[in-house]
Design goal:
By secondary structure, the chain is an all-alpha fold. The protein has one domain. It contains four helices and no strands. α3 crosses α4.
């Protein structure tokens, strides 16, 4: 087990989870932050935020794997991808447990 790769995957996935939490708070409190929005820009901004989020989270979760793959370190690339997806799965499971506990 490559501890350095494991820590990088943990760091990047944690950053992705924090980013996702921040975006979810903006979406959950959008009416409080922006007021009642009834114009053509609301769906436009939502889609921009969605696209930005896909790029940011994709880069954080799979960026290390892509860089390793491009450096011709295919085994490490696959390992990094597995670590990242596993950490993302753990955060998802933790979120589900918290939702159930708060019910």
């Amino acid at each position: 087990m490559d501890k350095k790769l494991l820590l990088k995957s943990f760091r990047n996935t944690t950053a992705a989870a924090v980013y996702i939490f921040g975006v979810s708070q903006i979406m959950n409190n959008g009416d409080k932050i922006f007021g009642e929005v009834d114009n053509m820009f609301a769906p436009f901004v939502f889609l921009l935020l969605f696209s930005l989020s896909a790029a940011v989270v994709g880069g954080l979760v799979l960026g290390e794997s892509v860089m390793l793959f491009l450096d011709n370190k295919k085994r490490e690339s696959i390992t990094a991808a597995i670590y990242s997806v596993a950490f993302l799965g753990l955060y998802t499971l933790l979120g589900i447990i918290i939702l159930i506990a708060l019910k």
